[in-house]
Design brief:
Number of domains of chain A: 1
Helix content of chain B: 25-40%
Strand content of chain B: 25-35%
Radius of gyration of chain A: 17 Å
CATH architecture of the largest domain in chain B: 3-Layer(aba) Sandwich
Strand content of chain A: 5-15%
Radius of gyration of chain B: 22 Å
Number of strands of chain A: 4
Mean pLDDT of chain B: 94
CATH class of chain A: Alpha Beta
Number of domains of chain B: 2
CATH superfamily of the largest domain in chain B: NagB/RpiA/CoA transferase-like
Oligomer: heterotrimer
Chains: A alpha/beta (170), B alpha/beta (217), C alpha/beta (474)
Strand order of the largest sheet of chain B: 1-12-7-4-2-3
Order of helices and strands of chain A: HHHEHHEHHEHEH
Low-confidence stretches of chain A: none
Mean pLDDT of chain A: 95
Largest interface: B-C, 79 and 103 residues
Number of helices of chain B: 6
Structural class of chain A: alpha/beta
Number of strands of chain B: 12
Shape of chain A: globular
Largest sheet of chain A: 4 strands, parallel
Shape of chain B: elongated
Chain lengths: 170, 217, 474
């Protein structure tokens, strides 16, 4: 949103355009920043489990994020990556779309959860919190225990804390 | 009424395009030059034998091919097709084959446009396009288009040397220069539909089977 | 047929619960997607072709008046007549006039989206003419009295059983009394029934995939061959085409044909691509005696040069529909008019207005797949956003959440207030939830909790935690 859309939104605003462009120019999706800018190849983290990755639409189509998270996850000890059948499918979040058109959004997220279930992975990761809230919310409604984390939590070796939508069992 | 509509529509177009009137002379000359240039845009790369590629594409679409050495063998190939498919020994044909054809008496041949109940037609073609396995036909006094679309079985005679590489060459076939046929037909495979549960079925309205006789000389 | 754009929500809900429709959609979708992917993957030059296609259509639109005049001159030179219509009504009147002058009783039609836009069939039938659709999918929905649900496969929403019943009911008058259940038998029966119509019709009406200015040709792309029979057998041939269909020359046509078939059905070429050019020539044994082209504007000239200009470059391939998750879930009829899916959401909103079709621009997750697969790279998501902005400014129906946005804007433009209120909110929410990970209800967001639980925040905002963690490590 910030990187791609702020410059467009402020394009005709003489006062704020330069600031918007400056901020946008410094904004990156996390895994893209780590891989493309910082050149990180490995992280020292451990996550025992099978993981599937949800690519957000804005990451995929607006920011060219596809290989970067996978590149980083490769170096996480104990992590087994299983890809979804329909990697390109929208999870149905779409911002306000999820509350304005709940029936359609509900169908899309339940299709996504069915895809997740078919991988039999115990965890789903992603880089977009809107998607993750949506997916976690649906998984809990379905009574599923698949864990949901932002990829940053796994890369930073902080997945010992409760995942998205998870009860605090401490 | 149509004249007023015409004027208004053209005016609206020009207003929307922020132009005072029709394109100026310089632009018009540029547009003319663009039209006169025959340079194609990006085209798929085609390598290897054009004839082989043409056959491969045609067969991939359930088309059948028989190769013969010369025109004199063409009627025999037609007979074989008829026998294979148990068709009545009656064909309706176009005129204008590049060579005179001797049809055997066993087969009844009529040169005319097609009718609703014709089973099999035999026509020539202007060219074959290797890019997609497409046939190019043009309508004329001797090549009525109904022969391409009405019968159930359509046999097309294609000289090997008439096979060109790309769509553009087919559309700009030399014999089309200066003539204005009512119809230029590009035919690729048989008639098909996927309208019943996405199952592809042949023979929706046009021919159910497209057979090509490829002539060597 | 009724326009139901106002009932989008209701229709979408019905569609989601319609098991038969869902089965049909589930069957259709992977086919279209996989076939297109296969064709595109097999062509290394596809992106170059797309770039060329975009340039060609941009060029054509930038000189639309010039190319329309050239097209017209060439049609006339070949013995045809060109009619211009500003509105659908005008176009219908013109066509009725042609039919009347020809003493016509029966009309056969090839598939034409513009004719649906005009509600041409209703107009012709209202004047007492028999109208029969010849494209198999269009024929099926004609029998069912429905709008097409997909621009390439109009009857994609129909199951085999439904088609069996339609044919059984409507073909008895032709002496067909057996209930056909196999697809092949259904197609054969349709072939036989429609053949009769082909051979006896007075007027044939087709659409046009492209109009070529250089030669005055209209280009018809079909797989069935019905368009060709419709263009050839009756004595009068009428072509209905929108003004944005005209392209300069045959090289341009070749490029567009290459991207059209692949994007629509995954074919390299359709079975029948024909350039028709007027009435029968002296000596021709078949072909129509009269040839008319009706050019329809219907608001398109006003879109030129506007922020929605690029919608006019659409070649009606249907790739956007096939890849749209919303279309894939609700099918075409929920869109309420002729054009479904992403391109329909834009075009219908433009042609009928966002007041008439308030939901179409909003029922989109902006996932962007449509733009990704569009052979002409039409920026559909951007146009949908623009339509939302227009709707928002006009304040008309369908503008939900305006007040909520204003409240949020109040807080968001006061950073300290924003931080204070959000940290309070997450703290309270976490307290109320105890150790539970999700809430099952959310005030003002009932739409969310209708289908999902709502994850509860951890208790501190990111900024609060960041400050704490940084303090710890430094």
């Amino acid at each position: 949103m910030i990187r791609i859309h702020y410059p467009k939104l402020f394009a005709t605003d003489s006062k704020w355009r330069a600031r918007a462009e400056a901020v946008a120019g410094r904004c990156y999706e996390l895994t893209s920043f780590l891989t493309d800018v910082l050149g990180v190849d490995t992280v020292s983290a451990r996550y025992e489990g099978s993981v599937t990755y949800h690519d957000s639409c804005s990451g995929l189509r607006e920011m060219g994020v596809r290989e970067q998270p996978r590149h980083l996850l490769k170096s996480v000890d104990g992590l087994e990556l299983r890809e979804l059948d329909e990697r390109d499918a929208c999870c149905g979040f779409g911002g306000a779309f999820s509350v304005k058109y709940p029936d359609i959004s509900g169908r899309l997220v339940s299709d996504k959860c069915a895809d997740i279930a078919s991988t039999q992975a115990d965890t789903v990761l992603g880089g977009d919190l809107g998607c993750l809230l949506n997916i976690a919310g649906r998984l809990r409604r379905e009574g599923k225990h698949t864990r949901v984390f932002h990829i940053a939590e796994v890369l930073a070796d902080m997945a010992d804390l409760p995942g998205v939508g998870e009860d605090d069992t401490s | 009424m149509s004249k007023l509509a015409r004027t208004q529509i053209l005016e609206n177009i020009r207003t929307s395009l922020r132009r005072d009137g029709a394109v100026d002379t310089a632009t018009a000359n540029g547009l003319k030059a663009r039209s006169q240039s025959r340079a194609p845009h990006a085209q798929p790369l085609i390598e290897g034998s054009l004839v082989d590629r043409f056959i491969e594409k045609h067969e991939a679409l359930s088309g059948t091919v028989e190769r013969v050495g010369s025109w004199s063998e063409m009627p025999g190939a037609v007979m074989r097709f008829i026998a294979t498919h148990h068709l009545p020994p009656r064909v309706v044909i176009s005129g204008g084959f590049p060579r005179a054809v001797d049809w055997p008496p066993a087969i009844e041949v009529e040169q005319r446009e097609a009718r609703g109940d014709d089973s099999t037609s035999v026509t020539g073609s202007l060219a074959g396009i290797a890019e997609t396995g497409t046939l190019v036909m043009a309508s004329s006094k001797s090549t009525p288009v109904t022969l391409n679309y009405l019968p159930e079985f359509h046999i097309v005679v294609v000289p090997e040397k008439s096979i060109v590489a790309h769509l553009e060459e087919g559309l700009r076939h030399p014999s089309l220069k200066g003539s204005h046929p009512r119809a230029i037909s590009l035919i690729t495979g048989a008639s098909r539909t996927g309208d019943v549960e996405q199952t592809i079925l042949l023979g929706a309205h046009g021919p159910r089977h497209l057979h090509i006789i490829l002539v060597g000389d | 047929m009724k326009v139901t754009t106002q009932q989008f929500r209701e229709e979408a809900r019905k569609a989601l619960g319609d098991e038969i429709l869902q089965r049909a959609l589930a069957k259709a979708k992977p086919g279209f997607i996989n076939k297109r992917k296969k064709a595109v993957d097999a062509l290394p030059e596809f992106d170059a072709l797309r770039a060329d296609a975009r340039a060609i259509t941009e060029h054509a639109l930038a000189h639309l008046d010039y190319y329309l005049e050239r097209f017209e001159a060439n049609v006339v030179a070949n013995g045809g007549v060109v009619h211009w219509a500003r509105t659908a009504d005008e176009a219908n009147q013109i066509i009725l006039g042609i039919c009347e002058a020809a003493g016509a009783h029966s009309v056969i039609k090839g598939k034409s989206m513009i004719a649906e836009e005009m509600a041409l069939n209703e107009s012709l039938e209202g004047a007492g003419l028999e109208v029969v659709e010849t494209d198999l999918g269009e024929y099926i929905i004609q029998l069912a009295e429905e709008y097409p649900s997909h621009i390439i496969a109009p009857a994609a929403h129909k199951t085999r059983e439904q088609i069996t019943e339609l044919f059984y009911k409507h073909h008895r008058q032709y002496g067909k009394t057996k209930r056909q259940t196999e697809p092949k038998a259904l197609v054969d029966e349709a072939r036989s029934v429609l053949r009769d119509k082909f051979l006896n019709a007075d007027v044939g009406i087709t659409g046009a995939n492209f109009l070529v200015a250089e030669s005055g040709a209209n280009v018809l792309v079909t797989n069935e061959g019905n368009g060709d029979l419709t263009s050839t057998l009756p004595r009068v041939h009428i072509v209905t085409a929108a003004i944005d269909k005209v392209i300069p020359d045959l090289e341009d046509l070749s490029t567009l044909l290459r991207v059209l078939a692949r994007s629509a059905t995954g074919q390299e070429m359709s079975s029948y691509t024909t350039l028709y050019n007027g009435s029968r020539r002296p000596g021709d044994l078949d072909g129509p005696e009269e040839y008319h082209v009706v050019l329809l504007d219907n608001g398109r000239s006003a879109l030129l040069g506007s922020e929605f200009h690029e919608m006019l470059r659409c070649i009606r391939c249907g790739a956007c529909l096939n890849h749209c998750p919303v279309y894939g879930a609700i099918g075409g009829h929920a869109y309420g008019w002729v054009y479904p899916g992403p391109m329909g959401a834009v075009l219908t909103s433009l042609m009928l207005g966002t007041d008439e079709a308030p939901d179409l621009a909003n029922a989109c997750s902006l996932n962007g797949r449509c733009n990704e697969v569009c052979p002409l790279r039409i920026p559909l998501p951007r146009m949908l956003r623009d339509l939302r902005a227009i709707q928002f400014q006009q304040g008309g129906r369908g503008v939900r959440g305006k007040f909520a946005l204003q409240v949020w804007a109040f807080f968001a433009s006061r950073p300290n207030l924003y931080h204070a209120s959000t940290s309070l909110m997450v703290k309270v929410w976490r307290r109320l939830a105890g150790k539970r990970g999700v809430s099952t209800f959310a005030p003002f967001a009932g739409g969310w909790t209708a289908h999902r639980d709502l994850p509860v925040p951890e208790g501190k905002t990111f900024t609060q935690r960041w400050k704490r963690e940084r303090g710890r490590t430094q």
